[in-house]
Design brief:
The protein is an alpha/beta fold. About 35% of the residues lie in helices and about 25% in strands. The N and C termini lie far apart (about 70 Å).
């Protein structure tokens, strides 16, 4: 296969991540030919998508509820980035950073199907809270025959139903910033404050705003199990949020659409919100690997904060 032909093929079939590597000469001609065999198998699907597209006038969901209720679990549970190795790394980081004694009470806020909670429950008293009923159902099945118990709550993260109960609250892997109005994101932090004991700790795991938006491609394909997903990322400066549109080709060949948005924060922006909610930042980290210290170029912005005062 001619190299120029394959480059144009990639461009026509909208695989920007691979085409970007071709342009940057990051992959060889032999690799292109090898990859072409895999790509050509998807040709018919990609052709359909290129016709169907993610239209600029696609009707977007006004909030993230539909995405989290119907799609997040389906798309995330097979995501290799959230696999066992990454989860164990996160858990070791949590233990090192919090330095809490055995049986301390921890709330896993937006716990999903419990990938962090189940490992932490061997050492701590864990409560998991999530709005997704299906995820909590999987969580319950996963701990059915375990020796430890985990209290599971189905609730909106703005309305944590506990008062000064926890020694620490975890909010891992970009689970914050999903409300369009910052007053609602602030409400989440205030709800966390009320659930924590005085001087209790919060781990808030966010994307590092500027490095992330420089790195992320505006459009790319990804495969999760039997789903092929086209993601379009558009950063809205006025709203200070990333707007993500998705077209999913499932294993039955159906073409489905959804979207979500998430706020991005710089250190100064998240610091202001935390201060309003009664928190003070203790330390910043750039990843959960080896408790790296945060820099402006870090991929993640992981905040360790402390409840310094009670709020109304």
């Amino acid at each position: 296969m001619n190299k120029n032909y394959f480059q144009s093929f990639l461009l026509r079939t909208s695989i920007p991540s691979l085409y970007h590597k071709v342009k940057q000469k990051a992959i060889s001609q032999s690799y292109l030919i090898k990859m072409s065999k895999k790509v050509l198998k998807l040709n018919i699907y990609l052709y359909i998508i290129s016709l169907y597209g993610i239209k600029n006038n696609m009707i977007l969901n006004k909030n993230n509820r539909e995405y989290f209720q119907n799609w997040y679990l389906k798309l995330s549970k097979d995501d290799k980035r959230l696999g066992t190795k990454r989860t164990k790394q996160d858990v070791e980081f949590i233990k090192k950073v919090l330095k809490l004694p055995k049986n301390s009470r921890i709330l896993d806020l937006c716990c999903g199907h419990g990938r962090h909670s189940i490992l932490l429950a061997k050492q701590y008293s864990i409560t998991g809270l999530d709005i997704n009923k299906e995820a909590l159902g999987i969580f319950k099945k996963n701990i059915k025959n375990k020796k430890f118990k985990i209290n599971l709550i189905e609730s909106d993260m703005r309305e944590i139903p506990f008062k000064e109960k926890f020694d620490a609250v975890l909010n891992m892997y970009t689970s914050f910033g999903y409300f369009e109005k910052d007053k609602d994101n602030l409400k989440v932090l205030k709800s966390i404050n009320k659930s924590l004991k005085l001087n209790g700790k919060l781990i808030l795991d966010l994307r590092n705003k500027r490095p992330y938006h420089k790195k992320v491609l505006p459009k790319y394909w990804m495969k999760l199990k039997n789903n092929y997903i086209l993601m379009e990322n558009d950063y809205n400066d006025k709203k200070n949020q990333e707007e993500v549109k998705l077209i999913i080709i499932d294993n039955k060949g159906r073409i489905l659409k959804t979207n979500f948005f998430v706020k991005s924060y710089t250190v100064s922006e998240i610091k202001k919100l935390l201060n309003k909610a009664g928190f003070s930042i203790i330390k910043k980290y750039g990843s959960t690997e080896n408790t790296d210290i945060y820099t402006k170029k870090s991929e993640r912005l992981i905040i360790l904060a402390e409840k310094k005062r009670r709020i109304n």
